[in-house]
Amino acid sequence: MPKYSITKIEEYVSLGMDKSLTTKARGDALESLVCYLFGEIPGLMTQSNGVDVFKGSEIDVSVANTQEARWMQVLPVCFLVECKNWDAPVGAKEVGAFVTKLKEKGVQLGVLVAANGVTGNADNLTAAHFKIAMAQQDGRRILVITLSQLRELRTSEDFAELLCRSFLKVVASGRF
């Protein structure tokens, strides 16, 4: 599978961390990074900034998965990605809103790219961790990927394997 350009990854990360830019520009940098990383996995196609006809809900990135790459065969053929390029961890309210988006769209898998993770404690299932665990009751799975994890990726196979391992972990334990 293709190698990622570390320079390109770091350029997106630098833009996303540049406090002189607007919040939107910083968020767009993370979305662009996510589209780049997913787009290099064979058999995946991404679409950014999908807005529903009522202008009530925006999807940061939609992913179509032909399941060509071996690790991607475990994941559904379509899933959604929410990007949160925040200085703080993402809270339960925002995770709950993402779960609602998945439900409204009839999608079972969501990937939350949270620059600094989510609130709460995984062992005690508090705050955002609770929302992620409870989403499984409706057959929804939420994978949380952090910016530090994205920066460690060297190949698209690394990313596909990270997604697969995260998916298996959340299915088995309700935790990511």
Automatic annotation (TrEMBL):
Keyword Protease: no
Domain Restriction endonuclease type IV Mrr: 73-135
InterPro entries: Restrct_endonuc-II-like (IPR011335), Restrct_endonuc_IV_Mrr (IPR007560)
Keyword DNA repair: no
GO biological process: DNA restriction-modification system
GO molecular function: DNA binding; endonuclease activity
UniProt feature coiled coil, ranges: none
Domain of life: Bacteria
Keywords: Endonuclease, Hydrolase, Nuclease
Designated name of the protein: Restriction endonuclease
